[in-house]
């Protein structure tokens, strides 16, 4: 299988939160890998997520990244972040510090 990612990803094991609408509280998720462009998350249980999402790292400064579901397989979900200025720059800095 060919890897189609445009940006380098960082394997991590972090906690985060994912929200997909205003009707349900944010879900706690595990973050398995992270890049400037997106993340792979593991949900507590398999479920279908539709539409735009908001994502935040538990250890981050409270920045919320908006994006969309790129793929989903059972409880694993890939998110493609929307392009933004400040939040993306801080995430890129954090990823660089992990090397």
From TrEMBL:
UniProt cross-references to InterPro entries, sorted A to Z: PilZ_domain
Protein name: PilZ domain-containing protein
One function term, GO molecular function aspect: cyclic-di-GMP binding
Domain PilZ, chain residue ranges per copy: 4-88
């Amino acid at each position: 299988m060919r890897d189609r990612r445009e940006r380098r990803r960082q394997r991590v094991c972090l906690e985060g939160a994912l929200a997909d609408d205003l009707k349900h509280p944010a879900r706690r998720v595990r973050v398995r890998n992270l890049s400037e462009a997106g993340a792979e998350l593991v949900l507590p249980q398999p479920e279908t997520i539709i539409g735009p999402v908001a994502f935040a790292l538990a250890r981050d400064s409270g920045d919320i990244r908006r994006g969309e579901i790129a793929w989903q397989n059972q409880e694993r979900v890939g998110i493609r972040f929307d392009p933004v200025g400040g939040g993306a720059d801080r995430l890129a800095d954090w990823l660089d510090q992990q090397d």
